[in-house]
Amino acid sequence: MTFNTRVSILVSIMSTFTIRAAVIEDTEAKKIQRQIVIQNRMMRLLCENHLYLRIFPDDDCKFLFRFTYQQMQQLVLLFGLKEKMFFQENSRGKFSLSAIESVAILLHRLSYSSRLGDLAIFFGRSESTLSPVFKELVCRLHLKFRAAMIFDYNQFKPENLERFSNAIYRKCQRVQHCIGFIDGTFVKVARPTDNQEQCYTGHYRAHGLKYQAVVTPDGITSSFYGPVVGSHHDMFLYRESRIETYMRNTFDFRHEHGPCYHLYGDLAYVSSEYMMHPFGNAPEDSPYHVFNMEMSRLCVSVEHEFSYVGNLFSFVKFVQNQRLFLSPVASHYIVATLLKNIYVCFNRGNQTSMKFNVLPPIPQNYVYGLLH
């Protein structure tokens, strides 16, 4: 494909994105003016037939990759990636790519449900290069962070527990020592060829996988477990994740004459020392009903974080991309959640953290805490 052809296609793609993103309807003259600006910009961005990331303006970079170029450079360091990465190492097709371009491919692929052919035009790389870069980098990050994300001990250190508890108490004085909210989510996948009934759930009338998350008032998904097949109940995830064991070892300070912290979830969960749920069948004129309503408005934060993952990285919501046994479906969602957390850290908060007025950690502290 010639240089000019790539420019014209990229201009078309970029102009479509920009026009769709416009809040008000422009006049024809403004549309033409915008297209000229995009064309000039794309001419500068293409260098040696590959996309030259360094000179992307921050707004465009965040639009296409969710992070600025400087933030992507920091991601390379935070993930411990070598400057030159090798892919398909055990085959004759072994090749290398810079870490920054590999991260850009990962982020752009996750951010949109684009076809590999679209990415080939955008990055000036073949589909046979882009596919293994995306899959292998997703799997490497999954292997590196999956165990730590089940329960982030650094997020649940004593000073944070007190900070989270105070933030929730300020919003609802009827509850003490609550430090976060737990819930499960169902993520649809393409209908598998084999064992369809295991992934199918009549509740959603779809095939899918389930994940469990604990969201803390700083907007971070501080515990993330899964997947299990979509037909399982939330309580199955709770027991399978062994989260109550983690909480027993981390939340209980009664032996030091301190509090015993707990999570809050819906009626799907069984009440315990470390788990609180709404009062069942509470009359509307009772204080129990008022408590349920107040906590429901706070507990919705965990649903917001699930939605936030999908809004930032819509690849995980596009069902046809999620093919069991053909692609690393679990890795997609876990890595997207990790990147969502880091995105919140870089931007110093989100809807949840603003609601509770609690700042998230800086990216370096968050990733270091996960790995140590």
UniProtKB/TrEMBL annotation:
One Gene Ontology MF term: hydrolase activity
Signal peptide region: 1-29
Keywords for the protein's UniProt record, in alphabetical order: Hydrolase, Metal-binding, Nuclease, Nucleus, Signal
Domain of life: Eukaryota
Location of the DDE Tnp4 domain: 182-323
Pfam families tied to this protein: DDE_Tnp_4
Cofactor: a divalent metal cation
Gene Ontology CC: nucleus
Subcellular location: Nucleus
Keyword Nuclease: yes
Recorded family membership: Belongs to the HARBI1 family.
PANTHER family: GH03217P-RELATED, PTHR22930
Protein name listed in UniProt: DDE Tnp4 domain-containing protein
Species in which this protein is naturally found: Phycomyces blakesleeanus (strain ATCC 8743b / DSM 1359 / FGSC 10004 / NBRC 33097 / NRRL 1555)
